[in-house]
Amino acid sequence: MKIRVMVLEKYIYRRELNDSKRIVKLLVSMMVLLFPLTLIGGNPGDYKLIHSEGKVGLIDSFGNELIPAEYEGIGWSDIEASSDSQLSIYGDEVGYKKDGKWGLMSLNNKELTPPIFELIKPFGETTYVVGRKDRLYHYMKYGIVNAKGKSLTDVEFVSLRHGKNSAIVRKLVDNRVFYGVIDLKGKLVMKFQDEKIEYLDEGMLAVGNEAQKFALADEYGEFLSDFKYDSIDAYELGWARFYIHGKAGLMDGEGNEKFSAKYKHINVFQDKVLSYDDWLVWDNAYHEKASFQAEIVNTIDDKLLSLKVGAYYQLLPVDEGKVDETLYDSLRRFNSQGYAVAFFKGKAGVINQQGDWVIQAVSDEIEETSFGFVTMSYTRNDGQVTKWYNAKGSLMIDREFQDLDLINEEYIAFMGNDERWGVLDNSGKVVIENRFDEIIAYEQNLFKVVFSGQEAYVHLNGEMAMLPEAGTVSVNSKGNFLVSNRFGRTLYSRQGHELFYTYDSLVDTELGYQVVGDYGKIGFVSEEGKVILDPEYDEYYNVSGDSLFAVRKSGFYLLVGKDYFIRLSESDEITSIKKANGEWIGVRKDGKFGLVDSEGRLRIANRYDDIGVLQENRVPVKLRGHWGFVDEREILVIQPWYDTVEPFYKGATVVSKDMKYGLLQSDGIEKVALKYDTLIRTSSGGALVRLEGKWGYCNSEGVNVITCTYDQVKEVNGNSLIVHKRGKYGVNSLDGVPKIPMVYDLIYYDDENGLFLGKNTQSWQKLTETL
What we know:
Elements: H1 2-21, H2 23-28, E1 32-33, E2 47-52, E3 55-60, E4 65-71, E5 73-76, E6 79-80, E7 93-98, E8 101-106, E9 119-122, E10 127-133, E11 140-146, E12 159-162, E13 166-173, E14 176-183, E15 188-193, E16 197-199, E17 204-208, E18 214-218, E19 231-236, E20 239-244, E21 247-252, E22 257-267, E23 272-275, E24 277-282, E25 288-294, E26 296-301, E27 304-309, E28 312-317, E29 330-331, E30 339-344, E31 347-352, E32 357-363, E33 365-369, E34 372-378, E35 384-389, E36 403-406, E37 411-415, E38 421-425, E39 430-436, E40 438-443, E41 446-451, E42 454-458, E43 464-469, E44 472-475, E45 481-485, E46 488-492, E47 498-502, E48 505-509, E49 512-516, E50 522-525, E51 531-537, E52 539-544, E53 548-553, E54 556-561, E55 566-568, E56 576-577, E57 585-589, E58 592-596, E59 602-608, E60 610-611, E61 619-623, E62 626-630, E63 636-642, E64 644-645, E65 652-657, E66 660-665, E67 670-676, E68 678-681, E69 687-691, E70 694-698, E71 704-710, E72 712-716, E73 720-725, E74 728-733, E75 738-744, E76 746-750, E77 755-760, E78 765-766
Antiparallel strand pairs: 1-12, 2-3, 3-4, 5-6, 5-7, 7-8, 9-10, 10-11, 12-13, 13-14, 14-15, 16-17, 17-18, 19-20, 20-21, 21-22, 22-23, 23-78, 24-25, 24-77, 26-27, 27-28, 29-30, 30-31, 31-32, 33-34, 34-35, 36-37, 37-38, 38-39, 40-41, 41-42, 42-43, 44-45, 45-46, 46-47, 48-49, 49-50, 50-51, 52-53, ...
């Protein structure tokens, strides 16, 4: 704390010294941000406005006329005084308005500048800002005049931001913005550059260079540090906060680094700092691969991570353990070929997993496709220039497009300068010239297009397969066309012959076209236009993998195949058909369940209250309110004694009795005792078990290797257990042996890349205690 007090004392002394020398300037110099400026005035009680025939003038407190009532306004352009309370006189000068423009005059009625400005404001002790609209582009330009009306700068600044004793100004040169700093007398104290200059506080500046690094400078143009910082965003209580690679540090008002760049947040006012979270990475063999600090971590593959540190993203090669210094604005997921879209300094490009640019970051947007990348750059007149690159970053066609749109892996739609669409193949060859309003899709070897506002289909050679029609047009797997419009729904062959017509709704489904007729009844028509089922059914649903469907009519179900062959008809009097999860299908007849195969043949007789899925030659059956199992031959292998059962998996089933759970083997012998409140099977064949609110683990042999003492247990990678107790995480093997100590605030497993990631969260500390 002693060091902080010394710094503050030095800062206070310097401020008092500066204030005593510059007290007049501090009273008259106020913050200006892109105009309007804050008024700096004298005592309005010394002067009064006079009015005559819609004009205004000025008198002093004794009634002496100073400025005759000949002007449209007296004051300053942002506050045109209409009453004495609004009047502000600055020194011996005041603004006046004549013929809709402003000028500067003295209090003895001498015009110091002609009335040619749209804006005039006080600036320094004896200087004023004037503004005039650009004749061509009509934006405001600013300059500085002195108390005699003499121009101290050209009227060329496109903005002016007022500091304590200087101002940051901007000007345009060849449509590029240049920044500079002038003092209150209009003198250039920091030469113009095309990199940004920003005010911090207390007159300090953050100045950028061509390498987009920043340095600290005072408002008189003196540099206090080197150009080494990614940004400098604040100056508080004598400290400048800077960032390097997304991490914050502090330097004093003389540019000396006192706190190195390693923090997530620094709050000078509250004397607090917060570090980034500590992360570690292990492989499947529990070997530590890397350790680092970051806010968010994403795994790209088993050898590469992306880290979010502050506002930026970085890459970390796991085996090297060293973070790449490139700072990305954002980073999208790497594709299967090892490329990712990255934004750098506001522009989009493509990098490989080594961080090399395969497409330079010069585009406004990049869209990834399955066979490359489409770059988009926007022009000043809201147009768009689009280019197409392959996955390795090579330009596919040396040609610019208005737009590109991926159709599939073979074809891409392009828009020409006439805003018409055509089609390219994946080698860049034009297969359909650009003459359509839109290219919608590629279906059944045809392109669906819009031509003159109507949908149509086109062959690969550009000839029409289905002429434009009003309404919507679609093609089915048989190559026939369905046209839907206000006149009804019509199915046509490729040759244009009408196959089927209905005024009712016609919807494409897995079973064919569904017709909705009177009273909401449904029927089906094949893709060739043949009526399969008349519209007299109440519902239908998929029973098994888009190959079998249940259709209900008057309380009875039909089992219909995709081949339209009826496996079970109304005469079979089936009152329920279960969705199949196994080889056979559960059906109910006369109030009892059995199983049929995919051809509708009876496999398990209809004699059970309920029935489950055939798995590993075991079928769950329910008799007299309890569950047991039969085999495929319908031999009872486990007596119906349990309240609930699950299908067999890896030779065992989860069963429950009186709200207690256990595991049974296929012969009915207990593998895990029937005593747990919860039991969840795992991919290794083991089980997560919960007893009295705590979790444990039983291995595939049924041995309770981890007792129920943990808040959470999770099996990962088929070989490990993430355990959690009292807010800390660790990793054990499936035999219960600790492999990663339980000392981390979080551990999770990336199954796709085979990595464990552990994190310890940091908390706020006293700033002075970190020295």
